[in-house]
Amino acid sequence: MRAILQPRHRSALVFLAGLALFTLCVTVAAHFGLVSTSFVKTLGKTLCLCLAALAMDLIWGYAGILSLGHMAFFALGGYMIGMWLMYARTEEIVIASLLNGGLPATPEEISQGIATQIFGVVGASDLPAIWGFAHSLPLQLTLVVALPGLLALVFGWLAFRSRVTGVYLSILTQAMTLALALYLFQNDSGLRGNNGLSGLQNLPGVTAGQDTVSVWFFWASALALALAYVALHSIVSGKFGSVIRAIRDDEARVRFLGYSVESYKLFAFTLTAVICALAGALYYPQAGIVNPAELAPIASIYLAVWAAIGGRGRLYGAVIGAAVVSLLSSWFTGGRVPSIPLGFATINWVDWWQVLLGLTFVLVTLFAPKGIGGLFDRLAGVHAPDRKGAPLGPDDGSLQEKEAQE
Amino acid sequence: MSTLLEVSGVTVSFDGFRAINNLTFAIGPAELRAIIGPNGAGKSTFMDIVTGKTRPDSGSVSFGEKPVSLLRMSEAQIARAGVGRKFQRPTVFEDQTVSENLTLALKAGRSPWAVLGWSKTGVDDERILALAVQVGLGDSLGRKAGILSHGQKQWLEIAMLLAQEPRLLLVDEPAAGMTLAEREKTTELLVEIAKTRAVVVVEHDMEFVRRLDCRVTVLHEGAVLAEGSLDHVTKNQAVIDVYLGRG
Ligand SMILES: Nc1ncnc2c1ncn2[C@@H]1O[C@H](COP(=O)(O)OP(=O)(O)O)[C@@H](O)[C@H]1O
Ligand SMILES: [Mg+2]
Q1: What separation in Å is there between the alpha carbon of B50 and the centre of ligand 2?
Q2: Out of B87, B111, B144, closest to residue A263 by CB
Q3: DSSP of A336-402, one letter per residue?
Q4: Domain coordinates of chain A in residue numbers?
Q5: pTM, whole model, 2 decimals?
Q6: Of A115, A127, A145, A311, which alpha carbon lies 20 to 30 A from A305's?
Q7: pLDDT, tens only, A24-53
Q8: pLDDT, tens digit (0-9, with 9 covering 90-100), for B85-94
Q9: Computed over its alpha carbons, how large is the radius of gyration of chain B?
């Protein structure tokens, strides 16, 4: 008990308490109909984005690897769970409609019916081979972790082994995301091309309404965020965190201490890819649809912006950044913010929100490099090295002096 | 005498310029050796080769009783095999505390899984404190390395080197930026360490080398110019011409 009350765990305890309180409030509000089902879904989705931002903070804020491809893993997680959701749901519908015909349907008729239902939109009527596991929830759940994990492992192994670092690595991750998105856009990719997977909000075999299901997913998202926070906090506050921060600031020096820098990067890259995939698997059933546009490079760039605005190198910073920016974003782009007439022109927030966000990003980078999370550090009072403005290490991803202050 | 490190016939060129030219060097398991030589003689490059940072064009580098070639090993593998290095510039992790810096260096499993499963025991705490006290940082364990003075960073790096428990220490200009008292303490420490392991010290300062009281290797243009006691090499006419004569 004494161990978890140490000062270094204080931020995690405060975070968990805050998350629990938030979950309770939303649950109560939803129960009494004070908030709409769609708002509960928005909050649940926001928690999933926070989870992805948490992963982003580990890989960028702690390990110094600016990945611009982690939302690809997020979307892949969504695709993997989406395949089961869509298959099982369609199966129910097909069986029900065949029953109306009188005779019990044969397995061939059922699978043919499912294939036609799902792939009619792209002009195909056979189930592609990659749907071979879609009938089974456990198998498809395994794929949620295994596919993005494997992709990250192979990609990371190739990139880190050749010691690609800094901006080149960022470009490489961006290229990976783009390639994946372009592949999925094709109709013969086996994942319904640009239609993506839809109707994911309908859980097979569940009769409860969306008002109930939305709260379940909200809880699941909150639980996942809490568990991931605890796990990542225990990783970064221990020796592993110390090693990856050292790699971020001066990886050559870490090698001379006997650590295989590449294994650590690969470990962090793969772990965070898996976390993103899990976040995506919780997000898309709440969003209802996943399509290749979700893999657009901009999504991964947003992730980096959240971490930067929240304050990289501190877990709660990333969560705050993701929550604040994505909630503001859905508020501004939801069309509910009154436009500002200026006489000669009108500021329509749906369009101008991007500009505002971009401006905020620039301002935060220039004037508050520690982001929103930095405000909390100021209260805690941590010592800062004085480097006369120089970064804290020779490497591209190393923390800048301003980020480490106080 | 058995040798711990044997470098033979090593040559390295950078864009045609031979920084190390057919260099041969050997050191025993418990020996202190000073390397001197004018700027650009190849002293740091020599250390780069032994630690795996630079790959030689030709020659061999072997290490240990049952000699293994270091040339096919990565920097991290060489470090794990027991070669520790102190850089010319102090390189400590500025954003981390003295205690964290020492913990990183402390001899323990280096794989990600080993590190994840590692937790600090009372023995580790004592060892870290002892090392910090040894280099005069006993009351700075909780301070970030970035706020230490230049000399203190040098000391911290030496302590990190000791925490690694290497069998061979390569120390590049340890006394740079130190006060006279700090230099004296550094010599004492290096002499003490060399009783149980091999230590190679690169240094410019002759007084410092004299206090080390050990065999000296003079490097010039990437090759060994002379070797022997300090008095012996300083009497060597070639050494006087290229090195002492200048400065
Ligand atoms: N990575 C490199 N690329 C090109 N030239 C180098 C490199 N490293 C060292 N050199 C050159 O090799 C020579 C030896 O350098 P160094 O080993 O640093 O000398 P010192 O004895 O002063 O430590 C110098 O002329 C230096 O310019
Ligand atoms: Mg040098």
Answers
A1: 14
A2: B111
A3: -SPPEE-SS-EE-HHHHHHHHHHHHHHHHHHH-TTTTHHHHHHHH-------TT--SSSSTTPPPHH
A4: 7-296
A5: 0.90
A6: A145
A7: 999 999 999 899 999 999 999 999 999 999
A8: 998 888 899 9
A9: 18
